[in-house]
Specification:
globular, 12 helices, 378 residues, binds beta-D-mannopyranose, TIM Barrel
C-alpha cells in the first residue's frame, strides 16, 4: 500500500515536471541567454502581445510634463486620458560622468523610483543613453573626430574610460529591483539613430564595422563582466529606405531583441504617414525574418499643431502594422528661447480630445491594458 502511494507521488511529480518543461520549452530566450526570468517573460510576452495591439509610451512621463515637474503620481498622459502610458522611457546621458542628474535634469535617484513605480504598475521601461563623446569629452552630438568609436574599443586610448562609464551604467541597471528583490527588466536602446550623422556613433563618423564592434563590446561587457541580465536590447535607426540600409550597422541576432526606428513628422501628414507605413512594413518583415520584436522606438509631431493628428494620421498607421510599442518623445515644455517641445498632449492642448479617442481604440494600449497582460509573468 505504502509503496503504491510512493509510486503514485513519483508519477505525479514527474507529470508536473514534464508539464513545466513543456511550458519552459515554449519560452524563447532573448539575446542574453542568462536573462532573468522576468526579462525572458517580458521578451516572450511582447511578442505575443503584437497580436493584441501597440503599447503606447512616453519619454520621462512620470518626471515632468508640459508645465510641471516632479509632482507625485502626475503624468500628462494621465491628465488627458485617466491612465498612465504602457511604456515609460528614460535617459541615462551624464550618468557616465557620475553626475546626480541626467542631461535633461532628471535626478537618477528619482528616475529609479519612477522606474520602480512604473514596473509595479505593469508598464514597460525603455532607456536611451546620449552618452558624451569619450574622445573629446564633449556631448553625444559631437561628431568628430572619426576615431571616437575606435578609441573606446579594447587596446585603445579611451577603452578604460569607456569601461568606467559602463560600470556606472551597470550599477544603475543593477539597482533597479522590484518588491520581491527581482531585477526590473529594461529595454536598453544604446547607440540609437546610428544611420544618421548627428551623434558621434553615427553614419559618417565611423564605419559600420566599428559601430557593430562597439555595440557588441558594450553588450558583452555589461553581460559577462558586470553580470547585468535584466536587459533586452533595442537596435534602432533613424528613417531608412531599405532593409539593406537598415541592416548595414546591425550588430547581429545575438545582440538584439527589439528592432525599431525613430520617426518625427516635420513636413506634412501625408509624408509622415507614407514614411511610417513604408518603414513599419519593412520593420515587420525584418523583425519576423530575424525572430525579433518590431517597435516604433521614438516618434512625435512636435507641438502637435493638428488637433486630429492622433486619429487621422497615427491611428491608421499603427492599426495596419505590428509594433510592440510606440514611444512618444518628451514633453520638455517651454524653453528659454520662447519655443516649446512636446509630443504628447497635455490637459486642454488642442489635440487632447483626439488623443483620448485614439486611446479608446482596442488596439491602443495604455498602462491598465498592459497590466492585464501581466507582461513580466509566464
Ligand atoms: C532630444 C531633445 C533634447 C534632449 C535629448 C536627450 O531629442 O529632446 O532636449 O536633451 O533629446 O533626451
Amino acid at each position: 500500500m505504502r509503496l503504491l502511494l510512493i509510486l503514485k507521488n513519483i508519477l505525479l511529480v514527474s507529470v508536473m515536471m514534464l508539464f513545466i518543461n513543456i511550458i519552459k520549452a515554449q519560452q524563447q530566450l532573448p539575446a542574453d541567454k542568462h536573462a532573468t526570468t522576468e526579462t525572458i517573460n517580458l521578451y516572450n510576452n511582447l511578442k505575443k502581445n503584437l497580436n493584441k495591439g501597440v503599447l503606447i509610451g512616453h519619454q520621462d512621463d512620470l518626471a515632468y510634463g508640459y508645465n510641471w515637474k516632479y509632482i507625485d503620481g502626475r503624468s500628462d498622459v494621465k491628465d488627458v486620458t485617466g491612465d498612465y502610458p504602457a511604456v515609460i522611457g528614460f535617459e541615462l546621458g551624464r550618468i557616465e560622468l557620475g553626475h546626480p542628474e541626467n542631461l535633461d535634469s532628471v535626478p537618477f535617484d528619482k528616475m529609479r523610483m519612477f522606474i520602480k513605480d512604473a514596473y509595479a504598475r505593469g508598464s514597460v521601461i525603455t532607456i536611451s543613453w546620449h552618452l558624451n563623446n569619450p574622445l573629446t569629452g564633449k556631448t553625444a552630438w559631437e561628431p568628430s573626430p572619426k576615431e571616437t568609436v575606435v578609441s573606446a574599443l579594447p587596446g585603445n586610448e579611451k577603452n578604460s574610460l569607456y569601461n568606467s562609464w559602463l560600470d556606472k551604467v551597470a550599477a544603475f541597471f543593477s539597482s533597479l529591483k522590484g518588491s520581491h528583490g527581482e531585477y526590473i527588466p529594461i529595454i536598453f536602446r544604446p547607440f540609437h539613430e546610428l544611420n544618421g550623422s548627428w551623434f558621434w556613433w553615427g553614419k559618417n563618423n565611423c564605419t559600420p564595422d566599428e559601430i557593430k564592434q562597439l555595440y557588441q563590446y558594450t553588450e558583452k561587457y555589461l553581460r559577462y563582466v558586470k553580470h547585468v541580465h535584466n536587459l533586452l536590447y533595442a537596435f534602432n535607426t533613424d528613417k531608412f529606405s531599405s532593409a539593406d540600409e537598415y541592416l548595414k550597422r546591425f550588430p547581429g541576432d545575438d545582440y538584439t531583441d527589439v528592432l525599431g526606428f525613430d520617426i518625427y513628422e516635420r513636413n506634412s501628414n501625408e509624408e509622415f504617414a507614407h514614411e511610417a507605413n513604408t518603414m513599419l512594413s519593412m520593420i515587420d518583415s525584418i523583425a519576423s525574418a530575424h525572430n525579433k520584436i518590431p517597435a516604433l522606438t521614438e516618434f512625435g509631431y512636435n507641438n502637435l499643431p493638428d488637433s486630429t493628428w492622433w486619429t487621422n494620421v497615427l491611428l491608421p498607421v499603427l492599426k495596419t502594422h505590428k509594433a510592440a510599442y510606440a514611444l512618444a518623445w518628451r514633453n520638455a515644455g517651454k524653453k528659454n528661447d520662447g519655443s516649446a517641445e512636446f509630443y504628447m498632449p497635455y490637459l486642454n492642448q488642442s489635440s487632447a480630445y483626439d488623443f483620448k479617442i485614439f486611446c479608446d481604440d482596442e488596439r491602443i494600449l495604455l498602462q491598465q491594458d498592459a497590466a492585464k497582460e501581466k507582461l513580466y509573468k509566464q
